[in-house]
Amino acid sequence: MPRQPKPWYREGRGWYVQLDGRQTFLGEHPPKFPRPKKNDQGEWTPPPPIRDEFHRRMAASADRPRRQPAGRRDESLLVCEVFDTFLSWLSARVAEGSKSQRTYDWYRKYLQSFLRSAPPLLAIEDLDHSHVHGWVDSHPDWKTGKRGAMTAVQRALNWAARAGLLKSLGGKSPLAGLEKPAQGRREQLVTPEEYVEVTALVKDQNFRDLLVAAWETGARPHELFTVEASFVDLDNGRWVFPVRLSKGRKAQRVVYLTDAVLEVTKRLRQRHPQGPLFRNTDGNPWCVSSVKCRFQKLRLALGGRRLQRLGLLPPKIPRLTKPQREDRAVRAEYTRKVLERRERINELAREHGTRYNLYAFRHSRITEALVAGLDAVTVSVLAGHRDTTMISRHYAHLTQQLAHLREAASPDCAPCFFPGR
Fold first, then answer.
1. Nearest Cα to 262, choosing from 219, 195, 229, 213?
2. Whole-prediction pTM value?
3. Residue 240 forms beta bridges with which residues?
4. What integer pLDDT is reported at residue 6 of this predicted model?
5. Alpha-carbon dihedral of residues 161, 164, 170, 176, nearest 10 degrees?
6. What are the residue ranges of CATH 1.10.443 in the chain?
7. Is the pLDDT of residue 306 over 90?
8. Integer angstrom CA distances of residue 414 from 273, 371, 407, 421
9. CATH class for the domain made up of 188-359
């Protein structure tokens, strides 16, 4: 008698079931349920959402015509099988150090999201562009992440084609030529005056150190988050990252330090001889979420200061007199008005405050270096690029430097524009 399929859990990947000789993904473990474990009989106990999905898959499998076991690998491959094979390959690359865990988690997030929206047991031959477009359109909250989500799915299929898994399609990906949204471009720049204003409003030394390092070096956020004391070369005033932590993992990334950053590095190196140098007030290494939270608070502080300058602050609520404070109803109404005023101030502050990010500091540093006359080759080395292509295409925001361009276009600076003079 054949063995009855049962759901099982794979650590860090989610719930699966073996159907028709293939591993079928059932979903991630819901965070509100306890950690998965086996019962006394050695069987996994799935939470209700996974159990319902298991029964749905079992019913769909019962209605699905059985495929022939011989030669079925290339003829009826499922999309979920391709994704699972790709993630297994990516996991092996993480283990050997050529890929980061962050890369694996990024792909896994989008691939599993696509499978949740795709038809059950979608065969690779039935996959087309409409499945991907319908998936991203079902997530209106994805503002700038749609292109990345589509790229993740397309990348998995391209890998499968090169790995020889798509012979039934002639060795080509069904998502070749997928139309994706245009690549976004960061246009925000931080002027020296804005940098002074920002650092003046930052009260804690931890965040100020991070901003100083970002402004002075133009390092990538991930480099600021991961630099350790062992990477510091004080004699030459630089951070030397190992290849496994350098972008692209092909060449060693070197960040050259100014005197201000060198002073910060020496101080933090003594405080944190092990692990990341830059940490928040809780003692934890900075990450995308914690930095985003601090920039949101900074936006409110900047907006509040500008509201004061413009005289746009809502009028203050008069304090209650002693007899009024003894009246519960009056006190409750007073509290309501105070909270409404605070909410209104925060709303106005968000409108008038500037939302910064660490990449804006990096882009500003690169642009300021070009405006100051530093050649593109040197700037590309300082920025950690292999050549000047990225500098000219994405990072040189000279179109925003009107005064610099007007000066460069003058007869004294550009005589070739004025041959008659």
1. 213
2. 0.65
3. 254
4. 82
5. 0
6. 188-359
7. yes
8. 52, 15, 9, 11
9. mainly alpha
